[in-house]
Amino acid sequence: MARLNLLRFSPFRLNRLAAEFSGALAEDYARFGIDIPEWRVLATLGLHDGPRSAAYVVRCTRTHKSRISRAVGHLAGLGLVERREDEADRREIMLALTPAGRAIYAELVPLLLAREERLLAVLDPGERREFERLLGKIEAGLGLMRCDEEP
């Protein structure tokens, strides 16, 4: 019988790293009363000047639409995100950061980038570039869209 060493199994290792990174980053945005799915919505919308559809956020973040829907509801309740009807397709809901949402996004980005820097400090600059390249290659192989790409 073949055996699997979970600690050497790449999907598990990536998931474990992702959980550690997310937990570390969550410390920064939890103080604003938001959680991981809510931060994903803010981060996706904050990358763009104009509104984006909820479906776009789901595709970009690979987060289930029900979790995104709950996140949007909470963020709207906090006054950080507004829902708009898409004039071209009234069935589609567009999402945009409010001025308060943009302010929190602007405050959080430097904190999160600094934390990312600390988390990746174990890699030298060449290793960082290679790490980014390999992540991109795996993402492309899985057909994952990048948040900076238009749908």
Automatic annotation (TrEMBL):
Gene Ontology molecular-function annotations: DNA-binding transcription factor activity
Residue ranges of the TM segments: none
SUPFAM superfamilies the UniProt entry points to: Winged helix' DNA-binding domain (SSF46785)
Pfam families named in the record: MarR_2
GO annotation terms (biological process): response to stress
Gene3D superfamilies named in the record: Winged helix-like DNA-binding domain superfamily/Winged helix DNA-binding domain
UniProt domain HTH marR-type: residue ranges: 1-140
Official protein name in the record: MarR family transcriptional regulator
